[in-house]
Amino acid sequence: MAKSPNKTQKTEASVKGFLNSLEDEQQRNDCLQLLSLMESITGSEAKMWGESIVGFGDYHYKYASGREGDFFLTGFSPRKANLSIYIMPGFDSYADQLEKLGKHKLGRSCLYVKKLDDVDRKILDEVVADSVNEMNRRYNF
């Protein structure tokens, strides 16, 4: 049985072009701040993943089922309702930090915020840095 590739793939599209095309000024400014933060934490250049995700770094995974692929270590995506910030290890280890973060919602690996002014930036920086360190530990970088 042929395995289908991940739906979300790294592209050669321009990150700056994508971010500069955002109509909402608050969202565009927040994304530029996240761009700077995540480049600093990962030491990686931002890349577009699909049409609307900005990702940093990458890793190769392989599940026991045999499915394998590549994905980014951390990233973000400006959505209509909020900013999605990707915390790839999930949130099991971040309960104390999330309590202090400010206004947010959680998905499996997504931290949803309306705008960066709604959260404590120091705590957000810590969560992103800790998640990247965890991914590096898991994948032996």
Number of helices: 4
Number of domains: 1
Measure the end-to-end span: 32 Å
The CATH architecture can be given as Alpha-Beta Complex
Query: What structural class do the secondary elements suggest?
Result: alpha+beta
Shape: globular
- Note the main sheet: 6 strands, antiparallel
Q: Quick check: average pLDDT?
A: 93
Sequence stretches where pLDDT stays below 50 over 5 or more residues: none
Helical proportion, percent range = 25-40%
CATH class: Alpha Beta
CATH fold topology: Aspartate Aminotransferase, domain 1
Order of helices and strands: HHEEEEEEHEEH
Number of strands: 8
Beta-strand content: 15-25%
Strand order of the largest sheet: 1-2-5-6-8-7
Taking all Cα atoms into account, the compactness measure Rg is 15 Å
Q: How would you portray this structure in words?
A:
This protein has 141 residues and is an alpha+beta fold. The protein has one domain: Aspartate Aminotransferase, domain 1 (Alpha-Beta Complex). Helix content is 35%, strand content 23%. The chain is built from 4 helices and 8 strands, in the order H-H-E-E-E-E-E-E-H-E-E-H. The protein has helices spanning 15-20, 25-42, 95-101, 121-138; strands at residues 46-49, 53-56, 59-62, 68-71, 74-78, 83-87, 105-106, 110-113. The protein has a 6-stranded antiparallel sheet, with helices on one face. A two-stranded antiparallel ribbon has the order 3-4. Helix 3 runs antiparallel to helix 4. The longest helix is centred in the first third of the chain and has 18 residues, at 25-42. The protein is globular, with a radius of gyration of 15 Å. The mean pLDDT is 93.
